[in-house]
Structure formats: C-alpha cells, structure tokens
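ok so i was messing around last nite and threw this chain in just to see what happens. nothing serious, just curious
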Amino acid sequence: MYRTILITVDMAHPEQMPELIRAAIRVADETSPVVFHLLYVDETFVHHGLYTHYDKTEQKLARKDIKRKLKDQAIQLLPNEAEIKCHIREGTVHEQILEESRQLKSDVILMMARRPGLASYFVGSNAERVVRHAKCTVMVLRGSY
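result:
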C-alpha cells in the first residue's frame, strides 16, 4: 500500500513504539521497497525561557542520543531488511510533522493520539491539526495513556 511511511514518535511514551511499528508494517507496500521514517519533534525551544539554560553541545548530544534510541527501537521491531531513517525537528509538533511529511513526500503519517478530553475540546490536538492539513493519508492510533 504505502512506500514512504512517516511514524511520529513521542519519546515521553516509548511504550507506543511497538504499536506504531506494527501498524506501519501492516500498511507497508509488499511489492516495492519501503522507507520507514521515524520523527521525533523536540518542543524544548518552543518555550523561550529554556534557551539560556541549554547549550549547543548538550543539544547535539541529546539529539544524537535520541536518534540512536529511535534507531535501536526500530531495528528491534522492524524486519531486518527494512530501510529506517530517523529525523529530529524542533518546534511545534503539528507544524513540524506537516513540514517533514511535505519534504519527504510521505504516503502516510502514523501517529498516536490521546483520548479526547475537555482540554483538547477547546485547544485541539496535534493529531487533529495534522489530519486537517496533511497532504497525505493520516492514520491516528488511539492510545490508552
């Protein structure tokens, strides 16, 4: 079905990764090469007050560590022959997911979403914004967290 699969990952919820990967495998094209792109969006600098407390060296080390963790988890969960690429972006989650999807020309975006509550009724969720504005198919898995 899909060959360029963007899987959005929340590092605060590593327990979601197996479910996301299983879903990605189910929708992957079986007749053509597939690239699994894992995306983590770092929101640290969305809050400007944190700029002064975070130096560039720490930032580079943190990004490298996150990419390694993403790749290690994906390698354990995806078939051996799978092509895996890990990406990290900084900014607002929904904007960065949409931009990464546009750049990759992804066929599908897979992401988790919380069960809706009063807060998301007024503010909206990242999943809702991605679904509304994506240029490709978006699959939202409902998490129990």
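not much to say yet. The mean pLDDT is 88.
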